[in-house]
């Protein structure tokens, strides 16, 4: 989970401050020592840490903070604002050419995920009704061209290639002309990487740059390499004048040093972050939202945007009607699972909810695709009547469903029990809708009951 260790450390520091009625200068100094250690352990650049702590400390020992009714909360707000500034202040949007196509040049070392990120960016642009062209200009890495072509087919985006015998400079030049001739409004050039920065790589990139005059030069770096990623960004920027950085594998980086250092060290904004392997797992980078996540305040805006772009509104309305009328079936349950999966991994969704990382039991919650797959297998092994009327599923039917789904009877029992509890809760809410105060009390009672001995609604097979 992104920033997991840093987030935990910072939240512990601020929970101590939050509980104090008055905060002394010594309290601030002690908290800043902890913050400094947390950031250094997160592999944040030493100079960046020093400047950050100095700014926060200076603002935190002012009279208006010390005399505040809630000094702990004021200091947390200062840290939140400084973290946001550290990562760029506000979202750095993708440049757009006045005269199409907009040319984006992707650069980076081998293994950073440049080719996959190029396709992810094309997919993101397609969502905005753009027509991107992917350009296979990496003629050195074996199968690089084929990889881009496969990804292009997957997202139904055209891929321009002249094979591996034509120079990358000529490929880039012809690709831009091809885009103009065919009404394509974005050109994404997947350039070659090397295992390390060398003169040959830089010279080739400079030549491509001079021929196509890109509107964006995006450096793709692996967030998990920490300070190495920042050093790579700094070296590229000095020779190529980068316009932005794309951080890949941010979901696997529990420290977050690269994200917190790269803007301060290079001056280049982080424009996108990849939070997973799926083709649509690329998000615009919002510094203020990321700072909020780090401090455990959640990121409801990103969650709402995900829901708006991925969930079918009409289906959601119909589902709400069924829930209200207690007509929810296992078929609907599968439909709901499908809608949730479109939002991305469950642990990433929970990360966006305020306070969820500190909620009891949520910290260790792991829901993977295999778990979800077993639930789906159980439901798919039911007959049409069983999905519509779960109450008819007796012991023999449960044994058959378990055999058909490759699961155990205990797992089938657990899923049916949880489904039954969910339907009961929906009935209570239905009563609440039309039952006034009494109905509302019943609904709240039911919710409390579901958090009783069983520990509340759990994901199946947890």
UniProtKB/TrEMBL annotation:
<dbReference type="InterPro" id="IPR004780">
    <property type="entry name" value="SRP"/>
</dbReference>
<dbReference type="Pfam" id="PF00448">
    <property type="entry name" value="SRP54"/>
</dbReference>
<keyword id="KW-0342">GTP-binding</keyword>
<comment type="function">
    <text>Involved in targeting and insertion of nascent membrane proteins into the cytoplasmic membrane. Binds to the hydrophobic signal sequence of the ribosome-nascent chain (RNC) as it emerges from the ribosomes. The SRP-RNC complex is then targeted to the cytoplasmic membrane where it interacts with the SRP receptor FtsY.</text>
</comment>
<feature type="domain" description="SRP54-type proteins GTP-binding">
    <location>
        <begin position="101"/>
        <end position="296"/>
    </location>
</feature>
<dbReference type="Pfam" id="PF02881">
    <property type="entry name" value="SRP54_N"/>
</dbReference>
<dbReference type="InterPro" id="IPR027417">
    <property type="entry name" value="P-loop_NTPase"/>
</dbReference>
<dbReference type="InterPro" id="IPR013822">
    <property type="entry name" value="Signal_recog_particl_SRP54_hlx"/>
</dbReference>
<comment type="subunit">
    <text>Part of the signal recognition particle protein translocation system, which is composed of SRP and FtsY.</text>
</comment>
<feature type="binding site">
    <location>
        <begin position="108"/>
        <end position="115"/>
    </location>
    <ligand>
        <name>GTP</name>
    </ligand>
</feature>
<dbReference type="GO" id="GO:0003924">
    <property type="term" value="F:GTPase activity"/>
</dbReference>
<dbReference type="InterPro" id="IPR003593">
    <property type="entry name" value="AAA+_ATPase"/>
</dbReference>
<keyword id="KW-0378">Hydrolase</keyword>
<dbReference type="Pfam" id="PF02978">
    <property type="entry name" value="SRP_SPB"/>
</dbReference>
<keyword id="KW-0963">Cytoplasm</keyword>
<dbReference type="InterPro" id="IPR000897">
    <property type="entry name" value="SRP54_GTPase_dom"/>
</dbReference>
<feature type="domain" description="Signal recognition particle SRP54 helical bundle">
    <location>
        <begin position="2"/>
        <end position="87"/>
    </location>
</feature>
<comment type="similarity">
    <text>Belongs to the GTP-binding SRP family. SRP54 subfamily.</text>
</comment>
<keyword id="KW-0547">Nucleotide-binding</keyword>
<keyword id="KW-0687">Ribonucleoprotein</keyword>
<protein>
    <recommendedName>
        <fullName>Signal recognition particle protein</fullName>
        <ecNumber>3.6.5.4</ecNumber>
    </recommendedName>
</protein>
<keyword id="KW-0733">Signal recognition particle</keyword>
<dbReference type="GO" id="GO:0008312">
    <property type="term" value="F:7S RNA binding"/>
</dbReference>
<dbReference type="GO" id="GO:0006614">
    <property type="term" value="P:SRP-dependent cotranslational protein targeting to membrane"/>
</dbReference>
<dbReference type="InterPro" id="IPR004125">
    <property type="entry name" value="Signal_recog_particle_SRP54_M"/>
</dbReference>
<feature type="binding site">
    <location>
        <begin position="190"/>
        <end position="194"/>
    </location>
    <ligand>
        <name>GTP</name>
    </ligand>
</feature>
<dbReference type="GO" id="GO:0005525">
    <property type="term" value="F:GTP binding"/>
</dbReference>
<dbReference type="InterPro" id="IPR042101">
    <property type="entry name" value="SRP54_N_sf"/>
</dbReference>
<keyword id="KW-0694">RNA-binding</keyword>
<feature type="domain" description="AAA+ ATPase">
    <location>
        <begin position="100"/>
        <end position="247"/>
    </location>
</feature>
<dbReference type="InterPro" id="IPR022941">
    <property type="entry name" value="SRP54"/>
</dbReference>
<feature type="binding site">
    <location>
        <begin position="248"/>
        <end position="251"/>
    </location>
    <ligand>
        <name>GTP</name>
    </ligand>
</feature>
<dbReference type="GO" id="GO:0048500">
    <property type="term" value="C:signal recognition particle"/>
</dbReference>
<dbReference type="InterPro" id="IPR036891">
    <property type="entry name" value="Signal_recog_part_SRP54_M_sf"/>
</dbReference>
